């Protein structure tokens, strides 16, 4: 069969990536039209054009760039620390009954604690610098990723482990090459949720005496009733969430190529 026969038509290649965004574009268009017609009060809900102007003004004086860089660095460091720890402890707890006895119940109890309740405790322990902010994000990522890793490992077919033992694989090899590999769908699903939760907690973390970051910009805009800047900050958090979701989807495509799963048509 020739390449021309299997190649997708050009219109499909161009239109397919745009289709998931049509509903978003429609909401923004309706929002802008309502703002232009005066149906929305500027002080309560400025239009997208006002938000873009606020972004341009903040970008020109460097405020926006500094805020985004500071927040992204906190999110990266916190997510990486919490994610690695969650996978390591989740694998240990899922593979070993002793590991489950040691760590699972304390984590199950601690996950019910609201993040806002941890803020004063982290301030008392670590001060008001970067440490409590990063640790809050780490904890927000750690808990759901640990739960999804533990659950995914416990759902791996035990016959795979029995085969691995027949081939005399060590416990470490079974944990990482068999259990974690089999639990990857659950782990990556948990990662998508965990990163989104980490960004949500970042808003709380950056409200704690932050001198920079999107949260600090948001707090300042709230004090001065700058609704357009508030909406800009909310949009930035949403874009960061969308970006992290896209990165996890890329990981899923690369790491789960072996999986034969249903694809919606």
Could you explain the architecture of this structure?
The chain is an all-alpha fold and 265 residues long. The N terminus is likely disordered. The longest helix has 35 residues. 77% of the residues lie in helices and 0% in strands. It has a single domain, classed as MetI-like (MetI-like fold), CATH 1.10.3720. It has 12 helices and no strands.
Supply the CATH class: Mainly Alpha
* Backbone shape: globular
> What percent of the residues sit in helical stretches (DSSP H or I)?
over 70%
* Relevant CATH superfamily: MetI-like
Structural class: mainly alpha
Average pLDDT confidence is 83
Quote the distance from N terminus to C terminus: 24 Å
**Radius of gyration (Å):** 23 Å
**Which CATH architecture would you pick?**
Orthogonal Bundle
Low-pLDDT parts are 1-5
Helix and strand sequence = HHHHHHHHHHHH
The tally of strands reads 0
Strand fraction band? Answer: under 5%
Count the domains: 1
């Amino acid at each position: 069969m020739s390449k021309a026969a299997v190649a997708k038509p050009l219109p499909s290649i161009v239109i397919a990536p745009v289709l998931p965004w049509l509903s978003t574009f429609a909401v923004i268009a309706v929002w802008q039209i309502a703002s232009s017609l005066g149906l929305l009060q500027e002080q309560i809900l400025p239009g997208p054009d006002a938000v873009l102007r606020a972004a341009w003004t903040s970008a020109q004086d460097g405020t926006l760039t500094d805020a985004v860089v500071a927040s992204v660095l906190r999110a990266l460091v916190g997510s990486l620390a919490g994610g690695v720890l969650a996978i390591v402890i989740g694998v240990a707890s899922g593979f070993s009954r002793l590991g489950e006895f040691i760590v699972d119940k304390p984590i199950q109890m601690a996950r019910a604690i609201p993040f806002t309740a941890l803020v004063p405790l982290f301030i008392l322990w670590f001060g008001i610098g970067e440490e409590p902010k990063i640790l809050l994000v780490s904890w927000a990522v750690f808990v759901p990723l640990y739960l999804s890793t533990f659950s995914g490992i416990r759902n791996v077919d035990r016959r795979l482990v029995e085969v691995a033992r027949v081939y005399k694989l060590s416990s470490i090899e079974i944990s990482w090459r068999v259990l974690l590999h089999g639990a990857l769908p659950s782990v990556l699903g948990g990662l998508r949720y965990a990163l989104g939760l980490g960004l949500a907690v970042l808003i709380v973390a950056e409200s704690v005496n932050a001198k920079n970051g999107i949260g600090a910009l948001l707090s300042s805009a709230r004090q001065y009733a700058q609704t357009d800047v508030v909406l800009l900050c909310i949009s930035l958090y949403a874009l960061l969430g969308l970006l992290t979701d896209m990165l996890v989807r890329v990981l899923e495509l690369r790491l789960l190529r072996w999986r034969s799963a249903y694809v919606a048509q």
